[in-house]
Design brief:
single chain, two-stranded parallel ribbon
Length: 77
């Protein structure tokens, strides 16, 4: 979305960041995370007066969960 002045002259760009995605794991065995699993929101552009995207969601249904990694669902600014 943009705010216009006169004939198509942009005053302020209000394009915010995209929201995080959706990750779903429905496993009968093990989920091992040694890296980063994320559904993070995207930041707004530097010249934008709007906010960043919200975090997404991660659903895990498993018998055993293991690993030294990270699971992230963060908003952005």
């Amino acid at each position: 979305m943009c705010i216009f002045i006169g004939k198509c002259q942009y005053l302020i760009s209000l394009t915010g960041g995209c929201g995080g995605g959706i990750l779903t794991f429905d496993l009968s065995e093990e989920l091992k995370v040694d890296g980063v699993m994320s559904a993070n929101g995207q930041g707004a552009s530097q010249s934008s007066y709007s906010g960043g995207g919200s975090g997404g969601s991660i659903y895990v249904n498993t018998y055993h969960f293991d690993g030294m990694g990270q699971i992230q669902v963060k908003h952005s600014c």
